[in-house]
Amino acid sequence: MKKTVVLVVLFVFPLVAYLFFASGVNNFGKLPVLTESVPDVPTIQEGVTLDGKITILGFLGTKVDNMKGNAFNLNQKIYKRFGEFTDFQVVMVVPKGNEEQANALKEELGELSNVDKWHFAFADEAQIKSFFKDLKTDLDLEEDLSSPYVFIVDKDRNLRGREDDEDEGLKYGFDTSSVAELNNKMEDDVKIVLAEYRLALKKNNADRSK
């Protein structure tokens, strides 16, 4: 009997406590809004919008082939994990004139996963620079209008991020060149935003049933 009690105290109780606190973080934590009401993505493509979707937003620039590694990292570590959610999407802003390269990239990604929620927004240089500036981050576009960083934008077009990241403090974007960052930080943050909306939906359904 004593051995059983000791085993419960040493092994079972810590596990239960961990699951309780982990569940609390995932279910009730909120990812801070760092920029409110960013503009909708500049594009003439029908159906490409930030409204009503949890969006992973990125910038591929004029040298799309140079960003293939970043795109594959994002696809494998984030998109394949969350792409089944109906209100989730990836939107990549690309300078006009690079449609062929972007479509070729999507075909390559499609060999690894269903890419129906990967979208491209083609815009001119001035539009892209203005749009990126309106995100109000502490990051800059490269000269070719690309960025290794992607951003989480919620359904109300608010940019989400971290206010007290252990490495950077204020964290607006996630570096797609770093698999570790995608695994250890971005995945958790996307989970939190999705959980917020699931909880809100459950609450609304419960209120209606009263």
Please explain how this structure is put together.
The chain is of the alpha+beta class. It folds into 2 domains: 30 residues; 177 residues, Glutaredoxin. The protein has 5 helices and 9 strands, in the order H-E-E-H-E-H-E-H-E-E-E-E-E-H. Strands 1, 2, 3, 4, 5, 6 and 9 form a 7-stranded mixed beta sheet that branches. Strands 7-8 form a two-stranded antiparallel sheet. Helix 1 crosses helix 5 and helix 2 runs parallel beside helix 5. The longest helix has 30 residues. It is globular, with a radius of gyration of 20 Å. The chain starts with a helix and ends with a helix. About 11% of the residues have low confidence.
- CATH architecture of the largest domain, please? 3-Layer(aba) Sandwich
CATH class of the largest domain: Alpha Beta
The major sheet is characterized as: 7 strands, mixed
Query: What's the number of helices?
Result: 5
Structural class: alpha+beta
Label the overall shape.
globular
* Beta-strand content: 15-25%
CATH superfamily of the largest domain: Glutaredoxin
Mean pLDDT: 86
Distance between the termini: 47 Å
Helix content: 40-55%
CATH topology name of the largest domain: Glutaredoxin
Oligomer kind = single chain
Instruction: List segments where confidence is low: pLDDT < 50 over at least 5 consecutive residues.
Output: 5-10, 12-28
From the alpha carbons, calculate the radius of gyration and give it in angstroms.
Answer: 20 Å
